[in-house]
Amino acid sequence: MVAAVHESTTxxxxxxxxxxxxxxxxxDLRSAPRHxxxxxxxxYSYRLxxxxxxxxxxxxxxxxxxxxxxxxxxxxxxxxRGLTALGFDLSPLSVTVGTAKIASYNQLSLExxxxxxxxxxxxxSPQVPDRLSxxxxxxxxxxxxxLLHPIRSLRFPSRSFFVVAxxxxxxxxxxxxxxxxxxxxxxxxxxxxxxxxxxxxxxxxMMADVQALNWSEGECAASARRADARQLPISSSLVNGLxxxxxxxxRHDYSRVFHIELLLLGEAESDVTKLRHRSIRSHVExxxxxxxxxxxxxxxxxxxxxxxxxxxxxxxxxxxERFLRGYFQDIYLSLIEVARILRxxxxxxxxxxxxxxxxVMVPVDEITAELAxxxxxxxxxxxxxxxxxxxxxxxxxxxxxxxxxxxVLLSKGTSP
Length: 416
Hints:
It is a single chain. By secondary structure, the protein is of the alpha/beta class. Helix content is 41%, strand content 17%. It contains 16 helices and 12 strands. Strands 1-11-12-8-7-2-3-6 form an 8-stranded mixed β-sheet, sandwiched between helices. Strands 4-5 form a two-stranded antiparallel ribbon. A two-stranded antiparallel sheet has the order 9-10. α3 packs across α7, α4 crosses α6 and α4 packs antiparallel against α8. The longest helix is centred in the last third of the chain and has 24 residues.
């Protein structure tokens, strides 16, 4: 079992890996072919995936999964190594981005599709949610939907390619600017005349990446599917390795951060609300999932979690305790699924970050290691990549205390 110790000490079974600090961020992704098409702000680097895979030395025909696939970093890194990659995420944005990044493309088909998109006659803008009308002017929306309408008529994988190009291109025009776990509204004049050039520029960059990094159809056996990490739609004992990073327990709601992109994908406001409620309970608006009562009967809240909850001041928002309890129940449920889908001897890596609420540090990495053992996995080691600062609000009220960001490495025993 993992020792229950304070943040200021190194827990038993943990080792410092400061050379991995840069791989805990998305910086590398912003310049890497295909990865840079659309990055999530809190992604880890493909170099971290490669470090884990080198540590494991999986068979050349191995299967790697990611149950919180995000922007597809694990999937694409596995593809580049010739491994089969299976990605799952509840967000349709994640599935769209991941699908685009791992697909094989025909350059001539992409060029023909681009000519078709750019020469399409103007289309009437559909009635859009108020949030889109606030993010873009009427003229900007006309330009966006004039491009989006012919894109939606394309076949896979070209459709995914150009959807991602458009979503990436128009982010700079949106007045809903991501800011931490939310977005802030900005105001500036109409920029509708710039949208087509921005789209063509993004397509040009992506086509260059296809030339630099492509594979024949069927050479990269990978997929991204919409699914809940707590109930994955794949067979038991199928996967050799799993590398993932569940949403951090920092109250960030990614359905809000990417609200505009989800609406442009065609999701209704009610769909986004459902996604918010169904997501893992890393924020206060997520709701308890249905159908897991029996599995949770075996769950025991780890002692370190109980200590953190008891240390919360009496005046703290009551939702904080509720979402933290729910968060670790969901992590436990996801780990049960990992134990189910891993082959005997299979390996898993959870990239997690410790969090601080009302001045109380929650050791997510140690708690995750303990929950893995409850779920039937073996804790091998945890790599401490770096120690981050806290949110400005936390530091202003309670002072600075470094928060570990770690890779928790797990395995499934070989005995039946």
